[in-house]
Amino acid sequence: MSKPIASRLVALVTLASLPQAALAFTCADAVRLSEKGVASAEIVRQAEADGKDLAFVQQCLATQARAKAESAAKKAAEEARYAAEEEHRKGAEAAERKRVVAEYAARESMDAAPAPSPRPRPVSRRPAAPPMSVAPSPAASGGMGGLMDSDDRYPTTANTESYQDYGVNGFVLTEKDGQSTFSVDVDTASYAIARSKLEHHGLPPESAVRVEEFVNAFDYTYAMPKSDPFAVHLEASPHPQIAGHHVLRVGIQGRTMRGPRKPVHLTFLVDVSGSMSSPNKLPLAQKALHELVDNLGPEDTVALATYAGRETIVLQPTFTTRKAQIHAAIEDLRSGGGTSMGSGMELAYKLAKDNYLPGCENRVIVLSDGDANIGKTSHDQILASIRKYADEGITMTTIGLGMGNYKDVMMEQLANKGDGNYFYLDSEKEAKKVFGEKLSGTIETIARDVKIQVEFDPDAVRSYRLLGYENRDIADKDFRNDAVDAGEVGSGHQVTALYELVLADDAKAKDALATVRLRAKPPGPDAPAKEYAHSVPVSALTSDFEEASPSTRMAFAVGTFAEKLRGSPYVQEVSWGEIAKMARDASQGTEEHAELIRLIERAAELDRRGGVAVR
C-alpha cells in the first residue's frame, strides 16, 4: 500500500472514531465552503445547525482574509528583498569582473616589460589567459536538475566535473545489527564546494554533498579533553520534525597541542598545467601558499615542486628564515601544458622522503583541480603509489581549486590514502582559514587511523540511521583490525556524527542507549592503537529538541541542510524554512552561522527557480 493511501485510511479511521462533539462546525469548515463558492446563506445555515451564528461565520472569513493578505504582503516583501539582493549581487560581480580585468591587464603589462634582474625559471613562463566566458555544457551538473550558469569571472568550458554518489544510509534494525562502525572524517571540502556553487552557479550536484563534511565544517565549542587525546560529548533529543524519532549527537574534541609545536617539513606540489590558468585556480593557490609560509616558524622547511607536461623541482627544502626566497619561488609559478599528476606525485614524495626527519611532521601538500590527463593517470595507479609513503610517516593534504573540470573524487581519495586531510578553496577567506586560523589542525596530526564504533542496546533502541559517512563505512569486525586504514585527526580538530533513532517503548527505563568506542594510533609509523569507551546514558536524552544544547541543534540543522541538498528521501517533508529556523534558533551570532543561514535561504530561492542561478 502506498504511503499517501495509507495516510488517508488512517485519517478516515481516526475521523470515524471521534465522538460527535468533535465533528462540530468550525472556522475551517466555513473557510473551506467559502473557497468552494458555497453561498453565504448556506454557510450560515450549516453554522446555525451547530449553534453558531452569522457573526461567527463573518469573523472566520474575515480572519482568513487577513491571513491571506498578510501572506501576500509577506511574499511581496520577500520577492522585493530577493530582487534587491540580486541587484546588489550583480553590481558586486560587475565590479569584481572590472577589477580582475584591470589586474590581468596590469599583469600582462608587467610580463611584457623586461625583467630588472632576469634569472632562470623552473618552468616555462606563460602569462595566464585573461578572463573569458564560454557557455558551459547543459550537463553542467547543478544539483536537483539545475544547470551551472556561466560566471564571467572564471574561464569555463564544457563541464567535466567528477563526483561520486555514495548513496544514503538507511535505517538499521538494532536486533539484526547493533553496531555502527566508521572512520572519522575532518575534511570540509564538500561544504566549500557547495558554498561556491550556491553563491556563483546554482544548486550543487547531489553527489557533491557529503553530510559529514558539512557538519564538520562548523565549530561546536566542545570542551577540551583533560588528559586523554579526545573528549567525547554525547547528547540526544526528540526529533524536531518527526514524532517518535530522536536525534543522537556524538561529538569528539581532539586536544590542542600545548607549547611549541614540533617542526614541520612541507613539500608543496602545485599543478601548473594549462587547466589551472583561471583566477580561482593557480593565482588563488599562490595566495594560499603565501599565507601558509607567513604562518610557519623558523624551524620549519618548505620545498616546492610542480607538474604539468613535465615535473620540476622549483625549490629544494629551505628553512623559513629565508621566506623571501620561498615567496619568490611561489610567485614565479606559471601555468601551461598537460597534467602528469602521477609523475608529479612521485617527484614530490621522493623529495619529501630524501629530506625526511623523524619526530617531525613530514607532509606533502597538493594543490590542484584534480584533472590528470597524461602519464600515470588512473586512480588505482596514483593511489597505490602514495599508500606506501603514508605507511612510512609522510602524510598528505590535498587542496582543491576551481570548477568546470574539477575532480572531487581524485582529490578526496588522495587525502584518504595519504593519511591526511582534504580542503577546497573557493576564496582567499577560506585560504586564510585553512592556512591561518586552523593551521595547527591542518598540518599537525594528533592521532592516526581513528575509528568510531557505536553499539546500540537493542532493549533501548529499535533502529538507527547514521547521517553521512557513507564512504567511511568500516566492517564491524575490522574495528580492532589495525591494518585497516581510517581517518586522521589534527590538533584541536572536532568530529561530529549524527544519528536518527527510533527508541524502544521503555527506553527511558534503561541505563544507557549505546556505548561509543574510539580506537586510534598516535602519530608516526608503527605506533600501537589505543581504545576508549564511553556510555550514552539515558540522562543524555532531553525531553524536547529546544532543550538540547545549541551545538546539537546547530549540528542537526547543518546535517538536515546537507540531506536536503543531496535529495535524501528522509527529509522530503522538511521544508527549507524549517531548516533555516533551526539554524537561526541555534545560531550564536557568528559569521559562519550567518553564512549558513544565507546559504539555506539561497538554496530555497534556487529550488523555487528550478535550481538555476539567474544573472
What average pLDDT do the residues reach? Answer: 82
Q: Between the first and last Cα atoms, what is the distance in angstroms?
A: 45 Å
Any idea what the shape is? globular
Number-wise, the strands total 16
Total helix count?
16
What ranges have pLDDT less than 50 throughout 5 or more consecutive residues? 2-23, 110-156
Question: Over all CA atoms, what is the radius of gyration?
Answer: 28 Å
The main sheet comes to: 6 strands, mixed
Report strand %.
15-25%
Give me the secondary-structure category.
alpha+beta
- Strands of the biggest beta sheet: in what spatial order? 7-6-5-8-9-10
Helix content: 25-40%
